[in-house]
Design brief:
Shape: elongated
Radius of gyration: 25 Å
Strand content: 35-45%
Number of strands: 20
Order of helices and strands: EEEHEEHEHHHEHEHEEHHEEEEEEEEEE
Helix content: 25-40%
Structural class: alpha+beta
Length: 349
């Protein structure tokens, strides 16, 4: 089912959580809302669900305005970060809850509810655990129960608010891959809130990067990482080096390296280069930024090299595979030249 968010704004007192946000979600898409705390991503998710209502703007499901409809009328499944399971009832009863509280006229027969619960517990790999209580399960298992409960009502949209935030790193990685497979198997429209960039880039079809109630960039996960549209996106998605630049006549001078730029007015600018997008060459290499090695750190097959660049009084971080740097002198104090394979210059505002 498609979702169309049009001109949505939301204030909590003097705080503006969302500012004229518009976004389209295609039917069957897995979309990640990514951003730091306070960026508005959870508020937007709750407005889609009907747990909050916008001050201005509309939310449409399949072209129908649902802006004033309740959660129940929107027919969405919602999964919270901390499970929100009922501790005093069994796993099976938790999964069945959304069906059992329906008005009698729309409530499925008891046998149908039990069959659906059994099917869902098999789907989330918890077959045979329906008689246990939440306290008898691991964190990862409890989160699967929460997903099964959300799916029990056969929602048109699945909404997840940082569902793996309370889990350890290994379980989180296993569950997010499992969730992606579940999404693909079911073909349901899924909107997923996270502040974990790795999580969003690994499992989402598209990523929406949010900041201070606004959308900074929307696009396929790899595209957003490879071609950030703003300095904020560069900083937020992975490590990056920020290098001061001086722009004149369409050319940016970055620590002596001359870079052609488009759509950047003359004046001060800021260049962005990710650590893995630098090559380390011998000093004096044409088109390189000259510097001196300060530290070399080994992390398995990857070397992280810190290079002091005196012309801009900054330390630049470079990452490369060990074998790529074989034969190059990397002793502390050695002079090298850094040549960027990808560099982006923005106005320094």
């Amino acid at each position: 089912m498609s979702i169309d968010i049009s001109g949505v704004s939301k204030n909590f007192g003097a705080f503006q959580a969302l500012n004229d946000v518009s976004l389209e979600v295609s039917g069957g898409e897995f979309l990640a809302l990514l951003g730091p705390s306070g960026s508005g991503k959870t508020t937007l998710l709750r407005i889609i669900a009907g747990l909050e209502f916008a001050d201005r703007g509309r939310v449409l499901f399949e072209g129908h305005d649902v802006s004033d409809r309740s959660v129940r009328d929107r027919h969405v499944g919602f999964v919270f970060q901390h499970y929100a399971l009922f501790k005093h009832i069994t796993v099976a009863k938790n999964v069945a809850f959304g069906l059992e509280v329906r008005p009698r006229a729309s409530r499925p027969p008891r046998a149908e509810i039990e069959a659906r619960v059994d099917r869902l517990l098999r789907l989330v790999q918890l077959e045979g655990l329906g008689g246990r209580y939440p306290s008898q399960l691991s964190g990862g298992q409890r989160q699967r129960v929460a997903l099964a409960r959300a799916l029990a009502i056969e929602p048109r949209v699945l909404l997840l608010d940082e569902p793996f935030g309370a889990l350890d790193a290994k379980v989180r990685k296993e569950l997010r891959r499992w969730l992606r497979k579940l999404h693909d198997d079911m073909g349901i429209t899924t909107v997923f809130v996270t502040h974990d960039q790795e999580e969003a880039l690994e499992i989402a079809d598209r990523v929406v990067v949010m900041n201070k109630g606004l959308i900074e960039q929307v696009g396929p996960a790899q595209q957003v990482y490879d071609a950030p549209a703003t300095p904020f996106v560069y900083d937020f998605l992975g490590n990056t080096n920020r290098l001061p630049a001086a722009v004149k006549g369409g050319i940016a001078n970055v620590a002596g390296l001359l870079v052609p730029v488009a759509d950047v007015e003359d004046g001060l600018g800021m260049a962005f280069v990710r650590p893995h997008e630098f090559d380390i060459k011998p000093s004096g290499t044409y088109g390189g930024i000259e510097g001196t090695i300060a530290h070399v750190f080994a992390n398995g097959p990857i070397l992280r090299v810190e290079v002091n660049v005196p012309t801009i009084s900054l330390t630049v971080e470079v990452e490369a595979m060990r074998q790529v740097l074989d034969g190059l002198s990397l002793e502390r104090g050695a002079r090298v030249a850094l040549t960027p394979r990808n560099i982006r210059v923005f106005p320094d505002r």
